[in-house]
Write a structure and sequence with these properties.
Blueprint lengths: L1 H9 L13 H8 L6 E3 H10 L7 H9 L6 E3 H22 L6 E2 L1 H10 L6 H11 L7 E2 H8 L7 H6 L21 H6 L1 H19 L1 H13 L8 H12 L8 H6 L1 H19 L8 H31 L8 H12 L8 H30 L8 H31 L11 H12 L8 H6 L1 H19 L4
Antiparallel strand pairs: 1-2, 3-4
């Protein structure tokens, strides 16, 4: 627990020098290794590593923030100006933590500050956090100690620091049931949030396109596989290729990609509104309320774009020549089955949000905190591979819990063309599936679903990083 909390608060940013009188010039000279009077990203990154203060993206963020003439580096005046401005922000954070205004931060103030962010910290953990910053052994942190600890760390407030440990937004596995990302007020006012959402949407589009064949065989097996009609992974792929050619493996992918942007935007905006409704004015929203707000936002977004989910399923399962395209499919469904057809399977889809999002977040935090407790030594940053691994496993666990509802949803969407008397409800569909194929019949198609997780996460992460670089977003 201590390691995880310490990581959230401090991210292992170490004091570069205990001597408060050391001038900025000495530090600048130490970083300017080629002695050209400028410090670029590479030099700053190398300097932070040498001082044991390295964190992914920190050097780029510092240079971007202080680079007044936009030449990609900091001269001494820019370097000094950045540090002075950063100190002002650190001072405001220090004052907000110093609740009793005695010029020092103690364990009880650490506990109280975390409690306002919805995070419980024990007295022992709070004391260990203080020890990591405490230079004089007083078990209290004064301004000088606080300043030295965070001088070359780009985040300057608790919300920003803790935000680094959010569930990564780049993990797009084609099932948009996760809780939306949060952005700081600075990101919202600067417009950085829409760039991150756009980068995530593009990453999701490429990721879903890359894993579309596995997604199509999953839907195919969900609907058509049974004890009497067993469909293997390879056999199903062959069957689809024989029926419609190699390109048929991407049927339904167009709609799957098109729905990313509106769903992401609606979910984000709804999440912000639900957070405001659930939290008291001027107070931080508690963790359980964040989960409620996220689930409600997911439900709102799913309600708005659900007809596209139905179209995606129909287009994925279509035979060659059945529909000319998305609009033709929508027109035929509307003409033959009516508006209600676009909301078949809506209830199980909505119910699936809660177990998926809840288990996904819980497993992610547990795995991350366990890793930090056992393996964090020189740095409290788990690194990209560990975080991606935690995200992959947690997403898989979330899918495992919600998969029966996803299967029922897909079958209801696919059977929407039947007569009203033949259209089963969610419970009757589940009972019918269990009676016919047993309990594991509710997990038809889960193998290709699991198979697509790792490549989907990997592709979306790589594309997301390239998009961020292209849009000028520093991590």
């Amino acid at each position: 627990m201590y390691q995880a909390v310490r990581a959230a608060l401090l991210c292992d940013a170490r004091c570069w020098d205990a001597d408060r009188k050391r001038p900025y010039q000495d530090l600048f000279d130490r970083l300017d290794t080629n002695k050209d009077g400028r410090v670029d990203v590479a030099e700053l990154r190398a300097g932070l590593k040498a001082m044991g203060m390295f964190r992914q993206g920190a050097a780029q963020k510092i240079v971007s923030s202080g680079d007044q003439n936009k030449d990609g580096s900091l001269d001494f005046s820019e370097f000094t100006r950045y540090l002075k401005e950063h100190e002002k922000k650190l001072w405001l954070t220090f004052k907000s933590l110093d609740i009793n205004d005695d010029g020092r931060i103690d364990a009880s103030e650490i506990q109280q500050s975390f409690a306002e962010l919805g995070i419980h910290v024990s007295r022992e953990d709070a004391q260990k956090i203080l020890q990591s910053m405490d230079i004089d052994g007083s078990m209290m942190v004064d301004w000088n100690e606080w300043r030295e600890h965070f001088l070359l760390y780009p985040a300057h407030n608790l919300e920003e620091i803790i935000r680094y440990w959010k569930h990564s937004s780049v993990l797009d596995i084609g099932d948009s049931l996760t809780i939306p990302d949060e952005f700081t007020e600075e990101e919202k006012s600067s417009g950085l949030w829409w760039k991150q959402l756009f980068a995530g949407a593009v990453a999701g589009a490429v990721s879903r396109t890359g894993t579309a064949p596995l997604d199509r065989i999953k839907v195919f097996m969900q609907v058509h596989s049974s004890k009497s009609n067993k469909i293997s992974l390879v056999g199903g792929l062959k069957q689809m290729i024989n029926e419609g050619g190699l390109t048929s493996l991407w049927r339904g992918n167009g709609v799957n990609v098109l729905k990313i942007a509106p769903e992401t935007a609606i979910k984000f905006m709804a999440y912000e509104q639900y957070k405001k409704l659930l939290s008291s004015e001027g107070k931080k929203i508690e963790t359980h309320k964040r989960f409620i707000a996220g689930s409600l936002a997911g439900a709102t977004a799913q309600t708005s774009i659900y007809p596209m989910e139905v179209l995606k399923t129909r287009l994925t399962l279509r035979k060659t020549g059945q529909y000319a395209g998305v609009f033709d499919c929508a027109k035929k469904i509307l003409k033959k089955e009516g508006v209600k057809a676009f909301y078949k399977g809506y209830v199980p889809n909505l119910l699936g949000i809660i177990p998926y999002a809840g288990i996904d977040l819980a497993v992610y935090e547990t795995l991350k905190n366990t890793w930090l407790s056992h393996y964090a030594k020189d740095s409290a940053n788990p690194g990209v591979l560990v975080l991606l691994g935690c995200g992959t496993i947690s997403s898989s666990c979330g899918q495992l819990a919600s998969y029966p509802l996803a299967l029922v949803r897909t079958r209801m969407q696919a059977q929407a063309s039947l007569d009203a008397s033949d259209q089963p409800s969610m419970t009757s569909m589940m009972k019918k599936t269990v009676a016919k194929d047993g309990f594991f019949g509710l997990y038809r198609g889960i193998l290709p679903n699991f198979m697509k997780v790792i490549p989907a996460v990997s592709i979306s992460y790589v594309v997301y990083e390239y998009m961020k670089a292209g849009l000028g977003i520093s991590k």
